[in-house]
């Protein structure tokens, strides 16, 4: 019997795989044995090269997920290039910061479209394939703002709170079809997404003081949770939002 975390022979699609958390998760899945479809608007060339260096098959798939136009093609190209689709990691996301009194419709729609609408329709496209081929694993990337309110990020909080509900709803509908739908809620992770916070001396200090682990997380810190939720080790885990936050929510 294979190791419960073994992903050999599985094909994983990761959106936003060129950098940050998406790259960290893609390489963790590759290290566990999965072949990688690295999806995004900036070509994930480095991620693909590193996955290939681990002995995996890996392909760049170009897609701008600010609209749902590419979702069907992402699934088709993955199957065409890698022969299947077993794991989907909905990681691509953006954030816009402004006072709620001044927040624009453009900043609302841009975040909701990328962080929530495309996540649902890509999950739908992938699940149609998974249902017809014996199941699969879907992992959405949530946030501390799936649980908390945050400040000056109204569309981000709405989108990530929506990810929590959507993850549970899809688990309810698809668990009986052999698909596990779960989420990872990263804490404060040092990436482009949080560059402004890291650069703000007082916010940076406040954040560090509140994290029991005493440091920002790294994209690599997300890898173990992703491998767990992508593998048969999590076959009976459904609709769960797994915080990987250095203890932030426990505080
Ligand atoms: P990041 O370094 O800014 O990476 C975001 C990724 O999403 C990039 O690959 C980016 O591509 C991609 N992306 C954005 N818009 C896209 C679009 N329209 N089409 C295709 N790809 C698009 O940020 P990150 O911190 O790794 O964020 C990854 C996920 O984790 C996001 O969902 C974020 O909300 C979530 N998250 C992050 C933290 C944190 O502390 N960093 C905490 C909780 C949740 P480009 O490089 O081309 O822009």
Ordered list of secondary-structure elements with their pairings:
Layout: E1 11-15, H1 20-31, E2 35-40, H2 45-53, E3 58-62, H3 71-82, E4 87-90, H4 105-132, E5 136-141, H5 154-174, E6 179-186, H6 195-199, H7 201-210, H8 223-230, E7 241-244
Bound molecules: NADP nicotinamide-adenine-dinucleotide phosphate.
Short description:
This protein is of the alpha/beta class and 251 residues long. The protein is built from 8 helices and 7 strands; from the N terminus they run βαβαβαβαβαβαααβ. The protein has helices at residues 20-31, 45-53, 71-82, 105-132, 154-174, 195-199, 201-210, 223-230, and strands spanning 11-15, 35-40, 58-62, 87-90, 136-141, 179-186, 241-244.
Question: What gyration radius follows from the Cα positions, in whole Å?
Answer: 17 Å
Topology order in helix (H) and strand (E) letters: EHEHEHEHEHEHHHE
Which sequence of strands runs across the widest sheet? 3-2-1-4-5-6-7
Low-pLDDT segments: none
Give the overall shape, derived from the CA principal axes: globular
In which range does the helix fraction lie?
Answer: 40-55%
How many strands?
7
Tally of separate helices: 8
CATH architectural arrangement: 3-Layer(aba) Sandwich
Count up the domains: 1
Biggest sheet character:
7 strands, parallel
Distance between the termini: 40 Å
Question: Which tags fit this structure?
Answer:
Rossmann fold, seven-stranded parallel beta sheet, 15% strand, alpha/beta, 251 residues, binds NADP nicotinamide-adenine-dinucleotide phosphate
């Amino acid at each position: 019997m294979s190791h419960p975390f073994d992903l050999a022979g599985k094909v994983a699609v990761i959106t936003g795989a060129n950098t940050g958390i998406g790259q960290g998760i893609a390489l963790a899945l590759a290290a566990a044995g999965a072949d990688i479809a690295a999806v995004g608007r900036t070509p994930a060339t480095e991620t693909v090269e590193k996955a290939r260096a681990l002995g995996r098959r890996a392909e760049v798939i170009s897609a701008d997920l600010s609209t749902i136009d590419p979702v069907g093609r992402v699934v088709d190209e993955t199957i065409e290039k890698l022969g299947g689709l077993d794991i989907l990691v909905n990681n691509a996301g953006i954030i816009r910061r402004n006072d709620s009194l001044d927040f624009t419709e453009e900043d609302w729609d841009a975040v909701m479209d990328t962080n929530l609408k495309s996540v649902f329709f890509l999950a739908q496209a992938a699940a149609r394939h998974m249902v017809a081929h014996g199941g699969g694993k879907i992992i959405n990337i949530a946030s501390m703002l799936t649980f908390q309110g945050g400040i000056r990020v109204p569309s981000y909080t709405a989108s990530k709170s929506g990810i929590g509900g959507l993850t549970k709803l899809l688990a309810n509908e698809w668990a009986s079809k052999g698909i596990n739908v779960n989420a990872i809620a990263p804490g404060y992770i040092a990436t482009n997404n949080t560059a402004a916070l890291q650069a703000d001396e007082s916010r940076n200090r406040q954040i560090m003081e509140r994290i029991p682990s005493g440091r920002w997380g790294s994209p690599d810190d997300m890898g173990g949770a992703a491998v767990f939720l992508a593998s048969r080790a999590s076959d009976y885990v459904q609709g769960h939002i797994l915080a990987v936050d250095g203890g932030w929510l426990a505080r």
